[in-house]
Write a structure and sequence with these properties.
Length: 126
């Protein structure tokens, strides 16, 4: 149950990012299609992050240290752009926009909103 709530929180975070940023949009024609697209993008972004982020952190460890972790914003934005490209290949009606400001600010918004929403989801630990 917790993973579904976390997925819903991520989908809500993507929705809020598309509301705030004009270059980031979902162009589904129906309400169920729009909700499904948000859930699919949240799931896709989570998979892309889970697969690529550890590799990028290991390879780019020096950049993370040199920039005091600020390169993480750039990496997150690039992963969001990759998610948008994969969504295009899968014919999902999602546009991530350009790197600046859409992907960079979108990644920050998605990260902050999903973190805040996940505070309310129980881990299952006793």
């Amino acid at each position: 149950m917790g993973i579904l709530l976390r997925l819903a929180a991520s989908a809500a975070a993507v929705w809020i990012a598309t509301l705030i940023l004009p270059g980031m949009e979902v162009t589904a024609e129906t309400i169920p299609g729009t909700i499904g697209t948000y859930v699919a993008i949240a799931l896709l972004f989570g998979v892309v992050n889970a697969v690529l982020r550890p590799v990028i952190k290991m390879v780019g460890c020096g950049f993370y240290i040199f920039t005091l972790g600020l390169i993480a914003f750039v990496v997150n934005a690039l992963l969001l752009l990759l998610t948008g490209a994969i969504a295009g290949w899968l014919d999902l009606p999602f546009e991530a926009g350009s790197f600046w400001p859409d992907a960079l600010l979108g990644a920050i918004i998605i990260g902050v909103v999903s973190t805040v929403l996940n505070w309310f989801v129980k881990n299952g630990d006793k």
